[in-house]
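User: structure tokens for this one?
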Amino acid sequence: MLPMRFSTLVLLGAWLPLEAMSARPFVTDDARLTTQGSCQLETWVRSYKDSHEVWALPACNPTGNLEFTVGGGRARNSGEHGTSDFVFQLKTLFRPLSTNGWGWGLGVGTVRHPEISPGPNLLGNTYAYVPMSFSFQDDRVVVHANVGWLKERTTHRNNATWGLGAEFQTAQRVMLIAEAFGDHRHNPYAQIGGRLAIVPNRVQVDLTVGQQMAGPSNTRWISMGLRFTPDELF
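Assistant:
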């Protein structure tokens, strides 16, 4: 069975959320979409004391206000076989975030765990959430908040999920981030770190460290990621 820390991180939003949008390294999503007529690729590795994960989440926005994400991750514990997870998500905005303004939208999706819950049912845990974002000081400070719901396939339990994060521009190409997220059944998680724009609006790298609050030391992680956002593909 997957460690609780891994499954919780997956379910809370490894889907997703620099410059035009806040995505990596946040778990809390934002009220912005991938560039219209293009796609983006987010990929990262997250390492714990006795396990690690590798993720890749491509997302596309062909029409302008509907972003779809199809991707997945692979987790492996020391001395054990790995497990795979697949994410399918749609996201739209009712009010796009503007400079010194605010925005909100809706995301829905499913997370599939084939090794944990095999069978003919293609759907796994289902979820929905409302991303909200608030811009201050000409986008030098942006705050993101999520409230959501998740239905566990195996237990049929309904979970309330939440996330709160902020990004702070400290230099032209550098952002610092701080975030907390969780659900109503477990202690929350928190992470801090930063992102660097290698090519502004195109390529960014990030690094964060985090841990479950009041949790054991083996819930501590370090994460490194890469995000690529080409200007136009369609």
